[in-house]
Amino acid sequence: MAELSEWKPKTKLGRMVKKGEITSIDEIFQQSKKISEEEIIDALVPNLEDEVININLVQRQTDAGEKSRFKACVAVGNRNGYIGIGEAKTREIGPAIRKAITAAKLNLAPVRRGCGSWECSCHDPHSIPFKVRGKTGNVEVICKPAPKGLGLASGNVAKIVFELAGITDVWTKTFGETRTTSNYAKATFEALKATYKIMTPRDWGR
Asked: Which residues pair with 70 in a beta bridge?
């Protein structure tokens, strides 16, 4: 990827970010603008980390014979309220991972954190503010607020998503075939996205 100084925006939103007219990713989410260039994310959320969730070899039978491709699922996050999941398929592993990282950046979403557990009243954003659920394919994930110190009561795949989002304590319950790793990760992602569907009293004054 080219340096941001060499970036030539192709969209109006990109040009606004490049000129400094938009300086916060929150402005974009509040206005529900579509992000079509990964450089926008690189400019506004420069400290993103990425983690490979899963890599599969996908084979397809065609008239010319059997074609094999690698399918990568990657999560990106800044460990401070932003998380994205992306997938991509190519003939080689490296390009598949890089494309999946780009897709995850373009799919970045804010996560509303809080302390919604009745067992805890610290008001620190270490968990989630209320119960949420997400579903992808036949996998459903239910997340509930947890008291500080509990940790991540979830499977390893969901833990990666929670950690990159900045969630340190949460209860989870899963249904369906969680061995389908990418669906499990995306269902967890959908649950965290659902935290922004409801406003809490703390958000009323914003």
From this structure: 57, 90
Q: Where in the chain is the domain with CATH 3.30.230.10?
A: 132-203
pTM score of the predicted model: 0.89
92-138 pLDDT tens trace: 999 999 999 999 999 999 999 999 888 887 888 999 999 999 999 99
Q: Which residue has the tokens 């999941």?
A: 85
What is the C-alpha to C-alpha distance for residues 13 and 156, in angstroms, rounded to an integer? 36
Please give the CATH number for the structural domain made up of 49-110: 3.30.160.20
- CATH code for residues 132-203: 3.30.230.10
Judge residue 24's burial from the number of C-beta atoms within 10 Å of its C-beta, 0-12 exposed, 13-18 middle, 19 or more buried: exposed
Tokens of 183: 């669906």
Cα–Cα distance, 184 to 186 (Å, whole number):
6
Per-residue tokens: 6: 């060499």
What order of strands is seen across the sheet that includes strand 170-175? 132-136, 139-145, 170-175, 152-153
Rounded to whole angstroms, what are the CA distances from 67 to 54, 61, 63, 64, 96? 20, 6, 10, 8, 15
Distance CA 55, CA 72 (A): 4
**CA 152/CA 142 separation, integer angstroms:** 13
- Contacting residues for 25 by C-beta, under 8 A, at least 6 apart: 41, 44, 45, 82, 108, 110
**Residue 29 corresponds to which tokens in the numbers above?**
């989410």
* Span 170-204, pLDDT tens digits: 999 999 999 999 999 999 999 999 998 876 555 54
